[in-house]
Amino acid sequence: MNTLLKTLFVATAFTSLTAAANVSTSSGTEAKFSFEGTIDPMCKTSSGTSNSVTGLILDASQQVQDIGTLDVWCNTGENAITEYTSLNGGYLVADNATNSKIAYTLNIGDTSGINLQTGSYTHTATAAGTGNSGETSATALKIKPLSNGLDDAGTYSDTITVTVSPN
């Protein structure tokens, strides 16, 4: 019986070895494995620490006023493209019976006098942070209300939406 078990064991071991790998006389001493993956270019944004401003000065002084900072990060190592659209077509609109309007211009960093009344505006050089820690670059956003000091009473507002994409 011992002879039968030894023969069965040797036969099983030989079958297992040949089934696991077929090594030929031309096989080498190394194996290579190639693999790759892709990370698409992308940018991310947030509206900084303050994105809701109340108390704008709407008089004849037409002061340039901060409305917040745009924080941008891209994985491309380049600046971002940002597109700006106004909910009210580039106007501050009042909550009064006539929905009175005050036009304004937008400043994006060093670029000033942008008129959103003609539609959206694309800024092709918005600073963007890079790196695997997610540090952003901040761009100041400001508006200049074009009030003449004789506008109708009411609370005036608008919302600007910014969409960011890789350059």
From TrEMBL:
Alphabetical UniProt keywords: Signal
Signal sequence, renumbered to the chain: 1-21
Superkingdom of source: Bacteria
Protein name: Spore coat protein U domain-containing protein
Organism listed in the record: Pseudoalteromonas fenneropenaei
Lineage of origin: Bacteria, Pseudomonadati, Pseudomonadota, Gammaproteobacteria, Alteromonadales
